[in-house]
Amino acid sequence: MANYILVHGAWHGAWCWDKVVPLIQQHGHTATAIDLPAHGEDLTPVADVSLQLYADKICEAISQQQEPVILVGHSLGGISITQAAEQCPSNIRQLVYLSGFLLPNGVARLGYGSDIEGSLIDANKIMSDDKTCVSFDLAGLKETFYLDCCADDIAKATKLIRPEPIAGIVTPVHYTAENFGVIPRVYIECLQDCAILPALQKRMYTETPVAEVVTMGTSHSPFFSAAEQLVEHLIELAA
Fold first, then answer.
1. pLDDT-based confidence at residue 1 (cuts at 50, 70, 90)
2. What is the pTM of this model?
3. CA nearest 81: which of 13, 182, 6?
4. Would you list the domain boundaries of the chain?
5. 40-85 pLDDT, tens digit each
6. Is the separation of the CB atoms in 164 and 134 below 8 Å?
């Protein structure tokens, strides 16, 4: 039996895994989706958010499990699972980056990959007046994140996304070969992704090598558009 902890990306919450969790459980495994601070139903003030707080939340969730976990991070959640892996490596069996940011040591999301043009995120993000968070233009949601998703899923996301704290975007990730470096890593690339472009995904898993690359022909959100296929990949990785 495998034990999964699922970490969402920017603007999202644990709700984005609502299709995935029961499918994993149907295979006889356990799965837990968490809200990072100031996301989903978590009430942490945006001003209090930090990358360290994200890592603490993930490590707390890991500590509540009886077995080492397969830690899955989507999109910006990749940064959070990397930092958590550095902090509590002994309880993590595997790291899975689902179109996730797998950054080089000492690098922040802000500015990374800016030479690869075409991401629709830049055209739709809206910085708050106090510079503490970034909102997303709802008119660009489908084209950016959910191009191959059904209308019901897009409507759900439209109601539930929240402003993204800037802290996780501007803070560099730091890790060592002794902690983060000893955990097996897998990258699931999404070839129709308009948010994190395939070229950037490839750069990341090439610069920070992984044990395996799995390819899905989806948009940025296979947890909606291809949940069964995604779960099949996750189960195969555990085996």
1. confident
2. 0.97
3. 6
4. 3-238
5. 999 999 999 999 999 999 999 999 998 999 999 999 999 999 999 9
6. yes
Give the position of tokens 């929240």.
162
Burial of 177 (C-beta count, 10 Å sphere; 0-12/13-18/19+): exposed
- pLDDT tens readout for residues 189-215: 999 999 999 999 999 999 999 999 999
Closest CA to 138 of 7, 11, 44, 9: 11
pLDDT tens-place string over residues 211-238? 999 999 999 999 999 999 999 999 999 8
Q: How far is CA 105 from CA 10, 98, 123, 193, in A?
A: 20, 19, 28, 24
Phi, psi dihedrals of residue 198, rounded to the nearest 5°: -50, -35
In whole angstroms, how far apart are CA 53 and each of 15, 48, 49, 161?
20, 9, 6, 20
Which amino acid does the sequence have at 8?
Answer: H
The mean predicted confidence, pLDDT, of the chain is 97
Map tokens 């209308």 to a residue: 151
Q: Among 120, 125, 73, which Cα is nearest to 101's?
A: 73
Q: What is the DSSP letter of 90?
A: G
CATH domain 3-238 topology: Rossmann fold (3.40.50)
Closest CA to 166 of 115, 126, 199, 138: 126
* CB of 18 closer than 8 Å to CB of 78: no
